[in-house]
């Protein structure tokens, strides 16, 4: 017997998640307009936005970053997408999935009028190809681990089975079936994540190694097409995709995006009307808090220090637990969020952010139940440093702190340098701020000392953060290893996958192990302070998965 599947999970998204949209105020100036249903629209439906980092890739299989996922969420589409409240709703799927009673078989029916930008129909075979390509070890897709639970996925990723044995099947052109080898409570929410989007096999293979390296080597099936990106430049354009199956509900004609890393530069463009939205940092965030355009967008994103314990096959000084602990409690979190960032970001006492998921039995937030770890303590930091010096046989150390080269990360790095050098005499910090893409490459190669790291939720479950530090995780990138930690995370995924209380406790216990030995050190839970023109409406800000949806956005007459 089968049932219609309405999204549920052993772990629910906490109530009260904020979705920040534009200010509803009117301006005094008038512009020509047109009426569409209950919306009064400006004649020119063009949105001008800013990004703070480069676009690393145009290949959904290879992306690992917020910028790429934001792009894919506009120009491509999967079985589901996130609604205004960050809940998954059918997209290319023409209706809710049908799921077997044991949770081991999912069947999706597809819209039969969906097309690629070259005119090809989007079919079930495009999902089969895309998913097999992600789990194929030759692709080296960092997000392949999200497919664990699908039949044969783990064996394929280990090189023990062929990609074509993955538990996916095109039952017909417009019916796609997935067979699981174990239940995954959050599986439906993954269907809105870009790594699970379809790919056009003929186009991908025709492009070969060039696929996704520029707008010209990409293909689209979403609300917008993509242009003016050559793979290295700092701007790109979205244009309404007239071949999109749901184009009648897309209002914007064009979105122009420019990468601007300095807030002052972006603000000048905002003030002159050349940008419709801008991110604020530090003093600028404080300055504009009373402005009518000011909006704070909360995020289910943790920022933390990640310590590299192995470099070039050899243990580093940061493999010393007391050194990691000394660094982890040497900085003032409150000062960081209130004075340095001042953008609505909050103090964070763990790896898993607040307001992500609640205990399925008690309703208590994971962060609250797990508690706070590694709080600022100058005296404890000094004690840990003395122990580390004795164990390492040193009196002083020079460490390089890696981070992105945007304005916010530069300020955080300077702050961390000051705090650590002040509270841990003998440690010298050299800040190394590099372009986002370069930082990712250095992390992947583990060619760093410690790094300003971070993770945004792909789906509303604590495991999305905790399993990052498993020994075999492609996102570990630090050499952290703890057998008991790995055991607990594996129990939450396997033996206890359907025992919601046992699974929850596994994840609580695992996070405690990680933080008790300072595998990472929490910095803050990120928020974004922005200015947005009051005539910009219905930009969806998501707590999980891709950060923004522009499909429903429009420019109001003003």
Please give a structural write-up.
This protein is α+β, with helices and mostly antiparallel strands and 558 residues long. Strand 12 and strand 13 form a beta hairpin. Helix 8 packs antiparallel against helix 11 and helix 15 packs antiparallel against helix 16. The protein is globular.
Which residue ranges are poorly predicted, with pLDDT under 50 across at least 5 consecutive positions?
Answer: 1-33
Number of strands: 28
Question: How many strands, which pairing sense, and closed or not: the largest β-sheet?
Answer: 7 strands, mixed
| pLDDT averaged over residues | 92
The number of helices is 16
How would you describe the shape?
A: globular
Share of helix, binned: 25-40%
> What distance lies between the first and last C-alpha atoms, to the nearest angstrom?
55 Å
Gyration radius, to the nearest Å?
24 Å
Can you describe this structure in just a few lines?
It is built from 16 helices and 28 strands.
List the helices and strands and how they pair.
Blueprint: E1 2-4, E2 12-13, E3 33-36, E4 39-42, E5 46-51, H1 66-75, E6 80-82, E7 88-90, E8 98-100, E9 105-109, H2 124-135, H3 153-157, E10 168-172, E11 175-179, H4 187-190, H5 201-207, E12 224-227, E13 235-240, E14 254-259, H6 263-271, E15 277-280, H7 282-287, E16 294-307, E17 310-311, E18 314-315, H8 321-328, H9 333-341, E19 346-347, E20 357-358, H10 366-370, H11 378-392, E21 397-404, H12 407-423, E22 427-434, H13 436-444, E23 450-456, H14 463-466, H15 483-493, H16 500-516, E24 520-532, E25 536-537, E26 540-541, E27 548-549, E28 554-555
Helix pairs in contact: 8-11, 15-16
């Amino acid at each position: 017997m089968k049932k219609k599947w309405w999204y549920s999970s052993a772990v629910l998204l906490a109530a009260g998640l904020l979705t920040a949209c534009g200010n509803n105020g009117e301006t005094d100036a008038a512009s020509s307009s047109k009426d569409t249903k209950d919306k009064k629209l400006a004649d020119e439906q063009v949105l001008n936005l800013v990004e703070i980092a480069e676009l690393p890739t145009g290949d959904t299989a290879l992306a690992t970053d917020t910028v790429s996922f934001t792009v894919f969420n506009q120009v491509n589409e999967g079985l589901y997408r996130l609604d205004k409240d960050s809940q998954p709703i059918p997209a290319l799927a023409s209706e809710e999935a049908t799921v077997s009673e044991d949770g081991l078989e999912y069947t999706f029916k597809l819209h039969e009028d969906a097309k690629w930008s070259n005119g090809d129909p989007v079919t079930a075979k495009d999902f089969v190809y895309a998913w097999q390509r992600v789990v194929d070890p030759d692709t080296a897709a960092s997000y392949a681990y999200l497919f664990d639970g699908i039949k044969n996925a783990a064996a394929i990723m280990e090189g023990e089975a062929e990609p074509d044995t993955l538990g996916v099947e095109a039952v017909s052109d417009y019916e796609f079936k997935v067979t699981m080898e174990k239940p995954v409570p959050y599986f439906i929410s993954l269907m809105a994540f870009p790594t699970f989007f379809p790919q056009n096999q003929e186009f991908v293979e025709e492009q070969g190694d060039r696929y996704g390296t520029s707008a010209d080597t990409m293909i689209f099936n979403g609300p917008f097409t993509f242009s003016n990106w050559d793979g290295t430049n700092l701007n790109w354009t979205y244009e309404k995709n007239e071949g999109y199956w749901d184009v009648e509900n897309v209002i914007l004609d064009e979105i122009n995006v420019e990468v601007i890393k300095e807030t002052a530069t972006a603000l000048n463009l905002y003030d002159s009307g050349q940008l419709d939205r801008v991110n604020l940092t530090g003093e600028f965030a404080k300055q504009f808090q009373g402005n009518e355009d000011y909006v704070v967008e909360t995020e289910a994103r943790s920022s933390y220090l990640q310590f590299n314990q192995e470099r070039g096959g050899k243990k580093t000084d940061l493999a010393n637990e007391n050194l990691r602990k000394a660094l982890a409690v040497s900085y003032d979190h409150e000062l960081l969020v209130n004075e340095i960032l001042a953008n609505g970001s909050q103090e964070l006492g763990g790896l898993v952010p607040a307001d992500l998921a609640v205990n399925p039995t008690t309703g208590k937030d994971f962060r609250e139940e797990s508690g706070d770890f590694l709080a600022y303590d100058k005296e404890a930091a000094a004690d840990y440093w003395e122990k580390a010096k004795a164990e390492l046989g040193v009196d002083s150390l020079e460490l390089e702190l890696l981070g992105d080269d945007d304005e916010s990360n530069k300020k955080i790095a300077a702050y961390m340098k000051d705090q650590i050098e002040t509270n841990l005499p003998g440690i010298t910090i050299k800040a190394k701020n590099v372009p986002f893409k370069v930082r990712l490459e250095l992390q992947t190669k583990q060619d760093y000392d410690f790094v300003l790291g971070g993770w945004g939720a792909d789906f509303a479950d604590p495991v999305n953060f905790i399993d990052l530090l498993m020994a075999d995780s492609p996102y570990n990138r630090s050499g952290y290893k703890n057998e008991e930690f790995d055991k607990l995370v594996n129990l939450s995924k396997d033996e206890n996958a359907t025992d919601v209380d046992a699974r929850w406790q596994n994840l609580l216990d695992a996070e405690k192990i990680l933080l008790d030995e300072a595998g990472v050190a929490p910095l803050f839970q990120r928020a974004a302070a922005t200015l947005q023109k009051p005539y910009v409406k219905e930009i969806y800000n998501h707590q999980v998965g891709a950060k923004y949806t522009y499909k429903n956005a429009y420019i109001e007459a003003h």
